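Bench log. Compound arrived from synthesis this morning; before running ITC I wanted a structural hypothesis for how cobalamin sits in the protein. Inputs:
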Amino acid sequence: MSDVLMKIADAIYDGDEPRTLELVDEAVAEGIGPEEIINQGGVVGLERLGEAFDELEVFLTELMMGGEAMKAMIEKLVPLMEQGGQKGFKGNVLIGCAKGDLHDIGLNLVATQLSINGFRVTNLGTDVSVNKYLDKAVETEADIIAVSSLLTTSAYYQEELIQRLEVEGLRDKYKVIVGGGPITPDWTRKIGADGYSRTANLAVQLCKELMTTDKDTASEPLIYE
Ligand code: B12
């Protein structure tokens, strides 16, 4: 990994926003692309922070500071990401984070990537109830419902959403995709979702494929790892 990306990971781990933004300028000047800066720098720092939190080496304040530094970095990089986007309407996506879950960094990255690549995105933010997904899916004429979950406890609501769509006779109307830290391809298959991707970039490919193939909601999900 390049030296500046390692330093970015350290600055995110330290929750040092000014240093992070300074290093982002350096990385951009070196010609490193925004996605690489986010994934090889920022996400690496946040993953280390998550591990340290697990080991009780850091606490909630440190997680919050790391999260804030990451958000500032993404905000700075969005204009650069927009330059690489592909125009042309590709579909309507309704996105949110499952009920009880307040993690919105990954969710916003997926929303941003989709919108700069031609999807009309309605971002419901965090802590979205199953009822709200259902109401908004009708209102926004969504093609795809995307549910992010970073907590094992909130992942349960991804399953509940699919069950509710079935009960309401709406399952064939929407493609449901899932993602977030604890979400795996096995979980995606178990709950009968239509797709999963490990990253925001791959979510663009996943949504494009769902819009162009006539995947039956009962068939195997599309997995982008
Ligand atoms: C930053 C952070 C926070 C911040 C969040 C700030 C914010 N605005 O988001 C704060 C401080 C608020 C926080 C709080 C908590 N957190 Co926290 N947090 C993290 C941390 C360190 C980073 C998360 C992150 O942003 N990652 C970077 C992004 C880019 O990655 P991502 O979200 O996975 O998204 C990518 C992909 O997954 C994918 N993707 C994401 N969503 C979707 C959706 C779709 C449809 C698709 C296709 C793809 C996709 O694309 C994204 C971009 O490539 C993680 C550790 C970790 N390893 O993730 C813990 C972590 C998620 N948190 C954890 C915990 C326990 C908590 C708390 C319960 C702590 C507490 N005791 O209060 C609370 C819960 C609050 C709540 N109700 O939600 C645990 C969860 C354990 C679990 N499996 O349940 C983790 C894993 C830490 C740990 N190792 O213990 N947290």
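What the model suggests: The chain has two domains: 3-83, 91-224. The chain is about 55% helix and 10% strand.
ITC booked for Thursday regardless.
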